Amino acid sequence: MSSIAFEPKPIAGLKRADKTVDQILKTDFSVQSVLVYGPPGTGATYLVKRLIGSWLCKTPNEGQACGSCSICRSFENGRAVDLLHVKPIGAGRLIRVSCIKDPGTQDKEVDHPPVLEFLRSAPLMARSKVVWIDKADRLVDTASHSLLKLLEELPPYARVVLSTNHIGGILDTIRSRCLIVACDLATQDELDQAAGGLSELERVFAKSPGDLAEMRSDPARFIELARLLSRAQSLKPGAALRLSEDLRNLAPKFPGVDDSVRSHNVALLEAIAQWLISTQKEKSHLAIAAGDAAKLINGNGNPGLIFDAFCAKLILEMSR
Ligand SMILES: [Zn+2]
């Protein structure tokens, strides 16, 4: 089998999920809808593209895309006419109902036909007609419900793959219509082996090949974060507001699910929780507190107040 360079294979982990995809592809046409999920950097996109490649390919080899037919080449060049890639749009980064079905009014920001319309006709050239719903947790309710109806009665030539980093954001009813592929995090040993050794700080923060790549692109912010956090144990309670401010100043350097301030703050708190899990094992409630703070911010809480309260707790507990 010749390989297709659609997406680099992650450097570690993924063994079980990769096997599940092999099985799906070997069953050929009995599985029509698949949901792939996993934390960022675990290889979900790699698996999605493996599925799509195989579903489109005219001459698959034991279920794997051949990599050389005209369809495989058009997919590789991003010009496969029988593939529809649906992703969040607009300032809210949402998948609107107009992405799924014709809402009756024009939505200028949607630059593709609605999914229902796309799947109404058989494939033009490929073996099947494929829809990829990327970041499916961003589907608005009405879009989810239209999609659900579609999944219940897909035409035989149609294949749908949904991908997400947040499985909790997908309706149970949609989940139950899909075969689920879970991408696990690599173990630290797998990561260590594949990356040719991890630094002490990488061991603290990196949970996945994606995390590691992200860290290595700009290690300074992690060094600074670790410095601020380790200093907390020698601070007086009165220094909480200053620590809160210093930490929040780092937030823009931590990329979240989108470009909002809220999402940067949540990503920072996730990194803080990871540091606490790795270095303060006997104080697990602190990592939980960081997780709770992230939840409050996700629920639109005031980041300043939430960070202030969290830092006060951190200083108090770490100096004990
Ligand atoms: Zn092919």
Outline the structure in words.
With 320 residues, the protein is of the alpha/beta class. It has two domains: 15-182, Rossmann fold, CATH 3.40.50.300; 218-318, no CATH class. The chain is built from 15 helices and five strands. Residues 1-5 have low confidence and may be disordered. It binds zinc ion. Zinc ion binds next to α3.
Q: How would you concisely characterize the structure shown here?
A:
By secondary structure, this protein is an alpha/beta fold.
Spell out the key features of this protein.
single chain, 320 residues, alpha/beta, Rossmann fold, 2 domains, 5-stranded parallel beta sheet, globular, disordered N terminus, binds zinc ion
- Strand % is 5-15%
Distance between the first and last residues' Cα:
60 Å
Would you report the number of β strands? 5
What is the CATH architecture assignment of the largest domain?
3-Layer(aba) Sandwich
Count of helical stretches: 15
Helix content: 40-55%
* Oligomeric composition of the shown chains: single chain
Topology summary:
Layout: H1 15-26, E1 33-37, H2 44-56, H3 70-76, E2 83-86, H4 97-100, H5 115-118, E3 129-134, H6 141-152, E4 158-164, H7 172-175, E5 179-182, H8 188-195, H9 200-205, H10 209-217, H11 220-231, H12 240-250, H13 261-279, H14 284-298, H15 303-318
